[in-house]
Amino acid sequence: MEELAAALQAGEVTSVELTDEAIAGIERDDKAINAICVPDFDRARDAARRADEARVRGADRPLLGIPVTVKECYNMAGLPTTWGMPQYVNHVPTEDAVQVSRLKAAGAVVLGKTNVPLGLQDIQSFNEIHGTTNNPWDHTRTSGGSSGGSAAALASGFGALSIGSDLAGSLRTPAHFCGIYAHKPTLGLAPARGMVAPDAPALPVDLDLAVVGPMARTARDLTLLLDVMAGPDPLTHGVAYDLTLPPARHERPADFRVLVIEDHPLIATGSAVRAGVNRVADTLADGGARVERHSPLLPDPTEAATLYMQFLFSGSVARFPVEAYEQLRTRAAGLSADDRSLDAARLRAMVFSHRDWIEANNRRELHRHGWRRLFAEFDVVVCPITPTPAFPHDHNPDVLARRIDIDGVEYPYFDQLVWAGVATMPGLPATAIPAGRSPDGLPVGVQLIGPMFEDRTPLRLAELLEQQLGGFPTPK
């Protein structure tokens, strides 16, 4: 994006030319990928013309004339927002989400909206309305979810930036699967008003776990887009507060103190992902960083994963019909008291009482305090995003029957979310970066987790690693 902005500023290219080129690429290549589910080409061309005119008048905005995409779940006036749910196929908001407004105010040219899973509740991106988004590196595999359309669009060159959201790795997993960059901000750093299910009002609600964040083809672009997205909602905290993020703790690789985690007690780490984690660890060590593999300060990962599943699934069923809720209560009551599996934790959480949730939330605060202690000794934690590269499409409607294959051993499908929960449960920032390729050529990424509200620290390390590991690749 910085190169495009420099070319625009120098008059070497116009926004109209960039936009026409992006549209031509989508029309030529997206039939095989299916990333752009709601094109908005006419308005994009109009916005590009206005951007060029504004530049002639001397305007200088952060994203002026840059073609971008937006995840389908964000409200955009005049375009459908369905979250992939067929009953809302004709739902067309009349007002932009706050992040769409910020993109436009920064001068971005919105090409259209990108595909998502049904209700944003999958690690893949497919739905009855818009079909399946394929991984640009291997069309038989998923691009990830729920921001899979955005990741596939970026990997395919359909725009320089995109905005997505993350509750269960929905920014980081697609980035990992597609070989691009993404950043899950600290919880509450970027307002989500208007990134809302189509049957709900666009209110300035403080979400639990969920965030909105940037996706890009370079690490530096993540920082530039986060600066556009971050800051309180003007309807609430923005009345009283301004945002000033602290600078990155360090500027040189040699100054970083890094904890590397490649194993989780509840799920195996596949060999391809393990190799990616170790490539990053070796690169940091070679650059002079202090790299450790173990620390007693790390909050208990088993309890952390259980807490994460409790928050994630207690929220996901909050609006279930009464009949379905009673069925879940019956199933949960039938669990053995000795069953401490993640499957059991998910089922019990679906019928949590408010008392249960408060107890879990108190445990979360203890974990947050544990992370504060850890980040007094370390600057960044490096770990997997999921245990494997992109897996083959799996549209089994019984999601609880799905399995994830990790080097020949099957695990429950949703167990792979434990790595996303490492940062999500306590609300920490996490930057997803490409870390290499699997033996069969699939992208492999890792996440860099940083201290709360110190988002610039993992983002800066991502920039340094990009310089050392190499630039953005293109699909085969």
TrEMBL record:
InterPro entries named among the record's database cross-references: Amidase_CS, Amidase_dom, AS_sf, FAAH2
Lineage: superkingdom: Bacteria
Residues covered by the Amidase domain: 17-457
Gene3D superfamilies the UniProt entry points to: Amidase signature (AS) domain
GO cellular component: endomembrane system
Protein name, as recorded: Amidase
Native source species: Nocardia jinanensis
